[in-house]
Structures are given as C-alpha cells and as structure tokens.
C-alpha cells in the first residue's frame, strides 16, 4: 500500500503543485478555443453575424492582453494561492455565463471573465515551477509548458466536439464547467505558498521607471510585433474560423473539421521544442523566424487554394502549418538578448502583451466576412470559399510582414552590438 501511493510522498509535493498549475494552464487553453468547435450553433443561438461572432470570440483578449502588465506584479505581491484560486473560479463562472442565457451581453461578460482568469495561468505556472522545481530541471519544465497548452487546445477541441455531437453543444460547455470546478478545488486545497516565500511591497515608482525603459527600446517593439504577426494566424484560423471554414467550404463534418484543426496545435506542441533546440545550436533566431514565417505563409496558401482536399492531406498540411508557425516562441528567447537582465521579467510580460494584441486584430476577419455578404440575407448559412479567401488574406500578409521585420530586427541587433 505504501509503495502504491509513494508518488504522494512529501518530496513529490512540488511536482504535484506545479502539475496542478499546469492543469489550469491546460484548461484555460481549452477555454480559449472551445467556442470555435460550436461556431455554427453559437451563431444561431445568439443570432449573430460574422462580425458579432468574431468580436464575441475576441473579448477574451480584451481582458487577457492588458492584464499581462499586471499579473507578474500581483503574483509577487499577493502570492499564487489566492490569485490562482480566484483566476480558476472566474474562468469557471465565465464559462457558465457563456451558455446560461440567450442574451449576448451575458455571454460577453462570461467571455471577459474567462479572459481575465486565464491571464494568470502562464505566469503563475512559471512562478510555481521556479519555487518548487530544482534549478537543474527548471528549463525542461518551462520548455514543456507551451506544449502542454497546445496539447490542451487540441484535446479540448476533440473532447468538446465529441460531447456536443452526442448530447448537444451546451453539454460540451457544461463538461468544461465541471472540469473548472475540479481544478478550482484542487488549487484551493493543494497549491500552497512556500513558508520561506516573502510577500513584497509594490514600488509603483520603480514599475513606472521600468516601463519607461521598455517603451524606449525599439527592439522590444519590433520583436513583440513579430510575435503578434506570427500569432495572428493561430488566433484567426486555429482558434476562431478554421472549423467553420472546413465545414462550409470543404463539407467536413463538425468532428472531422475539429480533428483537422486540432493538428495545428499538435504541430505547435512538437515544433516549439524542436525549433528551440535548433535555435540554440544555430544561434540565429531571427533568420529562423523569417524563413519559417515564409514557409508557414506558403503552406496556408496551399491549404486555401486546393478545392477538394482529402481529410488526410488537410491534417498533414495543417500539422506543418502549426509546426513551422511554432517558431513564434523564439521571440521570447530574443527578449534575453535585446534587453538587460535587470528588466528581464518586465520585458517578457510586455512582449507577451504585444503578442496578444493579435486577439484585437482577429475581429477584423469577421468584419470582412460580414461586409462581403451584408447584402445577402442568408447571413447565418454557410459562407463561400471566395468570402473566406478574401478574409483570410490577412494571414499570409501578416506572415510576410513578420519575415521582413525579422530580418530588420537582425540588422538592428547587429548594429546595436557593433555600436560603441
């Protein structure tokens, strides 16, 4: 009996706590993409057009993005236990509000709460890892966190799709609420602060000075813009419109379309660590970013130009799309190069905020779709390939701009190193 439960010994307590934090990050990644699985049902339930739906989806980012400037400060000041419990609670309540009514404003409040709660997940699990995991293992754990999130998005898509098909779309959302309750209770009862952890007072004057230094650094802005432009295809296609596109244009069932789009996240989960190791060896992250941005754009154009792709071909192409797009994570490695160690944490938070501004651009796709068909009274029916192609032009354009800015960043970094 003792051997059977040896995993729960005191020395494994840190691993359990970090695992619970990772489970919350896993959960919030599912919540971020879950509405795309039932896009048709949600559009019909609330009586939306493409612009409304895209905006409903993006409300998540309205809360998530600005909070990136504060979550690190709040976690340092008030500790992880209380904040992470509240964050998980907000995600759960927000998920319930999203489906409990047919009033759009109630769903919008729910989506806003999910974005607010989710904003604590990534930073908190990194903080837990730094507190509870040995220093020699921290790099491995940290490098796996992004992959955990992408796997969560993929498995969550497939699970919600299966439940929705068999019991109805709202039951898929109820399943997520149930998981949220379990995670909230696990955080409340199991995630503890270390006894030696000292809660620090916030020095707003120093925070303001750090922020001024970040804003004046041109390289941070360029690097964050690259990250934003490379995340945009994920926000538009993988998180919002991919499932509906495959259903309306290629006639895939909801489950097949969901399974195909989920391969993007698997590509990301595998590609992130692969390109991380490659960049450490090649030592030329900006070139990798530029080349892979162009490859990703090329793959996406192939996906949208082939008229009758098979399910297998679509999955392979979308996997490669996610695999090469995963080089976006290198912008966080570049933070160490373009900013001093003194501002390392602030630079990472600021860069993550810039990356997430892609969520504010994402509604543009829905608005384009809406205006292209606004004279068509059947706005709730399937959209045509021509409409999607025009709306999706923003994806290869953003990747092309990212490739150019990556090369510009390389030149700017070289000039900074050579300057006296």
What are the salient characteristics of this protein?
globular; single chain; 2 domains; Growth Hormone, Chain: A; mainly alpha; 420 residues; 80% helix
What do these coordinates show?
With 420 residues, this protein is mainly α. It folds into two domains: 11-191, Growth Hormone, Chain: A (Up-down Bundle); 203-420, MFS general substrate transporter like domains (Growth Hormone, Chain: A), CATH 1.20.1250. It is built from 20 helices and no strands. Helix 1 packs across helix 8, helix 1 packs antiparallel against helix 9 and helix 5 runs antiparallel to helix 9 (169-190). The longest helix is centred in the middle third of the chain and has 33 residues, at 218-250.
What's the structural blueprint in terms of helices and strands?
Elements: H1 13-37, H2 39-46, H3 50-67, H4 71-78, H5 80-99, H6 104-118, H7 121-132, H8 138-167, H9 169-190, H10 204-216, H11 218-250, H12 254-282, H13 285-305, H14 311-325, H15 330-338, H16 344-355, H17 358-361, H18 363-372, H19 385-391, H20 394-418
What distance lies between the first and last C-alpha atoms, to the nearest angstrom? 67 Å
- Mean pLDDT across every amino acid position: 83
- In the CATH hierarchy, what is the class of the largest domain? Mainly Alpha
Q: What's the alpha carbon Rg, rounded to whole Å?
A: 21 Å
CATH superfamily membership of the largest domain: MFS general substrate transporter like domains
């Amino acid at each position: 009996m003792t051997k059977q439960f040896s995993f729960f010994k005191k020395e494994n307590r840190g691993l359990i706590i970090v695992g619970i934090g990772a489970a919350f990050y896993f959960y919030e990644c599912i919540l971020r993409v879950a509405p795309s699985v039932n896009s048709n049902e949600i559009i019909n339930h609330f009586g939306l057009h493409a612009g409304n739906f895209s905006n409903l989806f993006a409300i998540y980012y309205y809360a998530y993005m600005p909070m990136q400037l504060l979550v690190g400060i709040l976690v340092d000041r008030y500790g992880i236990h209380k904040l992470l419990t509240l964050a998980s609670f907000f995600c759960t309540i927000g998920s319930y509000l999203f489906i409990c009514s047919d009033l759009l404003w109630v769903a919008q409040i729910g989506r806003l709460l999910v974005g607010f709660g989710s904003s604590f997940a990534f930073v908190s699990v990194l903080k837990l890892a730094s507190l509870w995991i040995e220093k020699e293992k921290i790099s491995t754990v940290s490098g796996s966190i992004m992959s955990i999130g992408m796997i969560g998005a993929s498995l969550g898509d497939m699970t919600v799709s299966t439940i929705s098909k068999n019991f109805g779309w709202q039951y898929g959302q109820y399943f997520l609420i149930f998981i949220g309750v379990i995670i909230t209770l696990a955080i409340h009862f199991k995630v503890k602060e270390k006894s030696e952890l000292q809660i620090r007072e916030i020095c707003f004057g120093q925070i303001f000075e750090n922020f001024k230094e970040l804003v004046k650094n041109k390289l941070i802005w360029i690097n964050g813009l690259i990250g934003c432009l490379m995340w945009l295809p994920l926000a538009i296609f993988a998180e919002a419109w991919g499932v509906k596109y495959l259903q309306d244009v290629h006639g895939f069932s909801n489950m097949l379309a969901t399974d195909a789009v989920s391969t993007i996240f698997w590509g990301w989960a595998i590609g992130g660590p692969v390109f991380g190791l490659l960049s450490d060896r090649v030592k030329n992250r900006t070139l990798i970013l530029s080349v892979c941005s162009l490859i990703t754009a090329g793959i996406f154009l192939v996906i949208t130009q082939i008229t009758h792709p098979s399910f297998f071909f679509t999955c392979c192409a979308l996997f490669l799309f996610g695999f090469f797009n995963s080089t976006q994570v290198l912008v966080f490695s570049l933070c160490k190069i373009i900013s001093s160690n003194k501002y390392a944490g602030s630079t990472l938070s600021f860069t993550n905020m810039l990356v997430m501004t892609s969520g504010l651009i994402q509604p543009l796709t829905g608005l384009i779709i809406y205006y292209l068909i606004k004279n068509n009274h059947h706005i709730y029916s399937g959209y045509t390939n021509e409409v999607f192609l025009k709306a999706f032009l923003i994806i290869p354009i953003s990747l092309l701009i990212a490739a150019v800015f990556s090369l510009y960043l390389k030149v700017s970094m070289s000039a900074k190193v050579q300057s006296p």
